[in-house]
């Protein structure tokens, strides 16, 4: 663990806050009482102490701001474009986002921004800024400090990846999952330690921070293909329920949420349906329903049958990462066989490769 200092060497850190919506900036609708997104000026008025950070802060926003349940690949492209447009002008980016789909957005952005060498920090809150008790102010200030942090030795940004700063932890974006709808520590990354711990100090786990390879230039890849889906298995699933989901020729890739270490029913209709779907050109990726651990498909006959049918192991990837990675790979125009191969390779630290 190491402490980091804000860079003041070349003046104040210059940061861009991108407000997309979410609870952090919401207010209660006067007629229904339900929380709805509000504008960014309201949010900043409620956090005057941002000024005391001494940073050069600018902002942009999605117009209109949205509840993150309405996030989709088009919105990811809009957010990503803001980062790309400001890439040379800013030292770092803080994206304010609803918690509900923040892990999907963080995963998607990590694949859309290969070669990223600056911090892209997502945060939000469980209670809106402006309420008497809330976690938004703390989360926003901390995210700004994380985005401003520099490695004292190199002068380079401490964080050079897409990460989620929430509560007391900084998590790798494409390893994160929303784990609680109520806890102020809403996010967890079950298969990867935190990148930093926030207590009295912000303590970075330096050896875990992602660093782009020296020869890899920043090369945004905004194209996404949304012809992918998620299929969730459960005991008692029948062919009449599953077949229409898999037979949809519109789908190029499917994340199959399996049991335990990547297991599924071994009934002949099930294995045959998998093989048939793969033969028709769809990539099926095995991702466990367990929040922690991953797929070891050779461990049980029930997993081995899937592998023999041609289902690709998602190893210890989250569903959010597997899904958005396929959107990215198909978006890049890769053929099914190339997508299948890349799903077991770490592109931006989203999985632990097999040794
Ligand atoms: N529904 C909200 C959203 O995701 C929840 C939140 O921000 O915590 O936009």
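Sequence proposed for the structure above (355 residues):
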């Amino acid at each position: 663990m190491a402490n980091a200092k804000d860079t003041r060497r070349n003046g104040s850190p210059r940061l861009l806050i991108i407000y997309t919506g979410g609870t952090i900036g919401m207010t209660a609708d006067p007629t229904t009482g339900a929380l709805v997104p509000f504008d960014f000026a309201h949010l900043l008025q409620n956090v005057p102490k941002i000024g005391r950070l001494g940073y050069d802060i600018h902002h942009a926003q999605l117009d209109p701001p949205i509840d993150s349940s309405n996030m989709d690949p088009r919105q990811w492209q809009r957010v990503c474009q803001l980062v790309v447009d400001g890439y040379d002008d800013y030292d770092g980016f803080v994206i304010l986002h609803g918690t509900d789909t923040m892990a999907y957005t963080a995963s998607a952005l990590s694949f859309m921004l290969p070669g990223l060498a600056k911090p892209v920090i997502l945060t939000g809150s469980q209670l809106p800024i402006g309420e008497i008790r809330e976690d938004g102010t703390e989360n926003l200030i901390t995210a700004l400090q994380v985005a401003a942090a520099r490695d004292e030795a190199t002068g380079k940004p401490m964080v050079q990846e897409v990460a989620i700063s929430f509560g007391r932890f900084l998590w790798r974006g494409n390893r994160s999952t929303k784990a609680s709808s109520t806890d102020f520590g809403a996010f967890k990354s079950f298969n990867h330690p935190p990148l930093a711990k926030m207590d009295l100090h912000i303590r970075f786990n330096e050896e875990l921070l992602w660093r782009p390879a020296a020869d890899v230039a920043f090369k945004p890849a905004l194209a996404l293909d949304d012809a992918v889906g998620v299929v969730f298995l459960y005991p008692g699933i029948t062919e009449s329920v599953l077949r229409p989901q898999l037979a949809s020729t519109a789908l190029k890739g499917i994340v199959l949420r399996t049991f335990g270490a990547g297991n599924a029913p071994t009934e002949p209709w099930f294995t045959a349906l998998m093989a048939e779907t793969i033969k028709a050109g769809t990539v099926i990726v095995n991702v466990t329903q367990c929040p922690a651990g991953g797929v070891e498909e050779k461990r049980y006959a029930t997993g081995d049958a899937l592998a023999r049918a041609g289902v690709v192991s998602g190893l210890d990837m989250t569903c959010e990462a597997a899904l958005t990675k396929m959107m990215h790979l198909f978006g890049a125009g890769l053929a099914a066989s190339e997508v299948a191969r890349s799903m077991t390779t770490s592109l931006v630290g989203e999985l632990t490769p097999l040794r």
